[in-house]
Amino acid sequence: MAPAPEEQLTQEQAFGILHKIKYPLLDPEVLPEPTLDTLRELNFRCMTTFPFETLSLRATESRAVDLRLDAIYDRIVNKERGGWCFSLNKLAFSLLRSLGFRVQYTLGRVCKPMNYGDPIVYLGLTHRMSLVLLEDGSKYVFDIGFATSSFYPLRLQEHFEVEYFGHKRRIQKAFHDEDKAHVLENPPEELWQVQEYMGEGEDGQERWSPAYTFTEQQHYPVDCEIGNFWCCYSPNSPFYQSLWVIKGTADGCYNVLINRTFKVRSCKGTIENIAIKTEQQRQEILKKYFGIELTEEEWRHFDIRIE
């Protein structure tokens, strides 16, 4: 049985994405070169243009995220919506490849605790990201699909740290279940771990919280389909029967709408916190902070209205 043909963006679609994120092209008819500067510019502009959102689950007949590349492009670029890691990072992967980057995608395990200091629990392979190999041999994580993702790519190098608008993210080596004996007596699995800076503790020490872990293993479309299906339909998914819309801003904040709570987060913490009491109030927040107005069709399928 022959494998399905690999999905790729057309050149017109690649330019369509660049125009949508207002990428500063030196020549309007020439795609940018696959350099670190290009990678950083793409990461920042995607994070401040495309929202992380679960409206596909709440306001479509299918209650699912369509992973066909043309469907992702249509939703994000033409319909001005967003997505989550399996769609946003698939679009990003396809764009990077069309620009000439050497890139593969991999899957990671989310392990971000609800509160700092809570026990770390590893979920399934439900987070997709891209790994980029540059000409100098350096490798970077390109991830625009973790809701409060870094505005800039992270180098695969232990202790590598990036700071932007006071926010900090870093890469560390980690081991899964290092304290448990392996049944087959294999050594603990070494992982990369993305961590988020949580500020200083009372003792003056920096506090870092894990976000997700991953390896450099190559994965395949069916792996993404399985993870995407779990995120859509499992009662254990954090997105099950929930509305999430999160987007970075050009001045370094994150606008965060989860169900009936809206927050604006800066590097100093929450600078605005609104308890949403009516559906009209929530729809006004969607329009003001995310540029999203539900269509008649979306409103007809919207299943989480505040009555």
Here the CATH topology equals: Arylamine N-acetyltransferase fold
Neighbour order of strands in the largest sheet: 5-4-3-2-9-8-7-6
Count of spatially separate domains: 1
Given the structure, what is the number of helices?
Answer: 8
Q: Could you say what the CATH architecture is?
A: 2-Layer Sandwich
pLDDT below 50 for ≥5 consecutive residues: which ranges?
A: none
- Note the run of SSEs as H and E: HHEHHHEEEEEEEEHEEEEHH
Could you characterize the architecture of this molecule?
The structure is a single chain. By secondary structure, the protein is of the alpha+beta class. The chain has a single domain (11-301), classed as Arylamine N-acetyltransferase fold (2-Layer Sandwich). Helices cover 26% and strands 27% of the residues. The protein has helices at 11-20, 36-47, 55-58, 69-78, 85-98, 221-233, 279-290, 296-301; strands at residues 52-53, 102-110, 125-133, 139-142, 154-155, 161-164, 167-175, 190-200, 206-214, 244-248, 254-258, 261-266, 269-275. The strands form two sheets. It has an eight-stranded antiparallel beta sheet with strand order 5-4-3-2-9-8-7-6. A five-stranded antiparallel beta sheet has the order 1-10-11-12-13, with helices on one face. A hairpin with a 2-residue loop joins strand 6 (161-164) and strand 7 (167-175). Helix 4 crosses helix 5. The longest helix has 14 residues, at 85-98. The radius of gyration is 19 Å and the shape is globular. The mean pLDDT is 94.
Quick structural gist:
The protein is built from eight helices and 13 strands. By secondary structure, it is an alpha+beta fold. It comes from Entomortierella parvispora.
